[in-house]
Amino acid sequence: xxxxxxxxxxxxxxxxxxxxxxFLSFAYPVxxxxxxxxxxxxxxxxxxxxxxxxxxxxxxxxxxxxRANDGGEPSGTAGRPxxxxxxxxxxxxxxxxVVRYFxxxxxxxxxxxxxxxxxxxxxxxxxxTVERTERQTVTLRFAYNAMNDIMKIVKDEKIEITEQITELxxxxxxxxxxxxxxxxxxxxxxxxxxxxxx
Length: 198
Known about the structure:
The protein is an alpha+beta fold. It is 31% helix and 38% strand.
């Protein structure tokens, strides 16, 4: 099972100007469609006076969730060229939004395609591509006397603990590589009483 993928390590911006029109591009590493909706809403609020807010995104290790949106531009002239750059960089878990301020001169179909593509490239050039491992969050509940057994598994499997409450009843959140999830859960279930995945 493949759980490695390429994405960008942090938000990046770019810009392209053509015949008075200004294209501001924003690239974000993202993990969910909910996160994407929030970012787009925030950009629309911040750049409320812009004529168009066009975007494309891709999610999942194999890029199985994707969308391209022309934001009011002629069909296929904005979202698709942005998405094309995501594919050519072979990255996922990414959102690219291009905000256009219209300069009064129409660019035509090929001019628009080139502008949105170039703006997307500029944001990607200003970003750093990194390789990540897809992980799943697992919540454990177990008795305090099982702590040593749980910690041994966590250490042996090099698992990241994101949250921990140590009382009589212990609670722990772990991030586990997707490729290792089944064997690790089998080990943990021998000691932990409640395991939930999300």
